[in-house]
Amino acid sequence: MISSSVVSRWPVPRVSASGRIVDAGMRRFDRLFDLIVGGFGVLYSLQTADSFVADAPSLADPLGGVVMSMVGLAILAGLGPLVVPARARLFFLLGAAVYAGALLLWAATLTPPVSTDPMPWLIALSPVGAAYLARGARSRVVPMVFAFVVSALASIGLRIRGDVALSDVAVDGLFMVGLSLVLVLLLGTVRHRVVAAANRQQLAVDTFAASQLEDATEHERNRTDALLHDAVLTTFLSAASAGDAESEDLASRMAANSLRVLMHVNAVGRNEQVLPFGQVLAQRCEQLGIWLSHFDQDLTAVEVVMLPPEVAHALVGVLVHSLANSVQHAEGATRRTLRGHPLGSDGIRLIVEDDGCGFDPGSIGLQGGGRGNEAARELRALEGRVDVESAPGAGTRIVLSWGSVAIVGTDLYTEEERRVLP
């Protein structure tokens, strides 16, 4: 499977397609918060055992059994986030609705005398319903209205049908409303603070990424200015001294190459949307994971390289087919490696290598048809490079690169890499 460090560092958004890095952190917080609220509901209900014992005789008839069953289901809804985390909101909403129905049914069927010491069982459970609704509704207003309405109806039932003293009704009503409001405000405030912190983190990430891009672009412009100055001067000198068609063709190609570099750097400077390459790797981990288990891989150095989305996806597209070709066709391979390296100040290099049977790049592989070659053509159209080094019996090395250095044609390997090449 794909490296766990890549997936954990660049988690894939599942709630929205915004690509925001902090979305995954908010999802983890919400899951933990759901578990805490669900656990609170179950544990708090256990604290009302004395009220349940006191009210059990009055709930012994068939209708009382229905009420107890409904309350039990409402409480157990708090275990839903533990079983199906993705449906936590639905479980909480159902739990709150079932509790409200049980409370109203109980209040409508009361027969005196109703014990108020300890507090009636369903009144004591009201914070559980409020907490569930606060998490399910993701709102403060709805649970507050819920607390007031349900409290009013339960108080009316206690007073009229249960013949409970007005002072006891007031105490029970204030308990339901007061404690429910405290829980709603507490849960809402905690999540509001976490969201605010996440937004500040996202702003910091965006600002840092923009600063990195701006610094890299400025550095690249300075480097390109010097490079083009030398290239143009060399081109003029070559053109001036050209005495045959071959020399004129060389000067023409040098001038075209200088213009391509300048166009690339300007395009990078204009491209406002960039994202970490590691995030795209995480998004495509299912495709990559099928083949990466066969490779000794190290992509840590390129996870943080900021690339235009279309370039990152084109690179991964070619990478998937390169890995698949190695696994499926490199017979006799005992070693397969995948390495990633930053390329200059604005680019990236991926090297896929095996010691298998090899092939003739001029007749098969990325030079022919098929989806792999469509992906390669797409990368080349984005000023990227796909370089294939192979021969029958000599293994295969595929180098995918993008960036102004790749366009210029600088050596594909650093000095450190050359020292370890076979």
Summarize the entry for a quick read.
With 422 residues, this protein is an alpha+beta fold. It contains 17 helices and 7 strands. The longest helix has 76 residues.
Top keywords for this entry?
five-stranded mixed beta sheet, 17 helices, two-stranded antiparallel ribbon, elongated, 422 residues, 7 strands, disordered C terminus, 3 domains, Heat Shock Protein 90, alpha+beta
Describe this protein's structure.
By secondary structure, the chain is an alpha+beta fold. It folds into three domains: 15-200, no CATH class; 216-270; 275-420, 2-Layer Sandwich (Heat Shock Protein 90), CATH 3.30.565. It is built from 17 helices and seven strands. It has helices at 4-9, 23-46, 49-55, 62-76, 80-83, 88-108, 121-124, 126-137, 141-160, 166-241, 245-270, 277-283, 285-292, 309-329, 371-381, 404-408, 415-420, and strands spanning 275-276, 296-298, 306-307, 336-343, 347-354, 384-390, 396-402. A five-stranded mixed β-sheet has the order 2-4-5-7-6. It has a two-stranded antiparallel ribbon with strand order 1-3. Strand 4 and strand 5 (347-354) form a beta hairpin. Helix 6 (88-108) packs parallel to helix 9 (141-160) and helix 8 runs parallel beside helix 10 (166-241). The longest helix is centred in the middle third of the chain and has 76 residues, at 166-241. It is elongated and about 115 Å long. The two termini are 27 Å apart. 35% of the residues are buried. Mean pLDDT is 75; it is low at 12-19, 365-370 and 409-422.
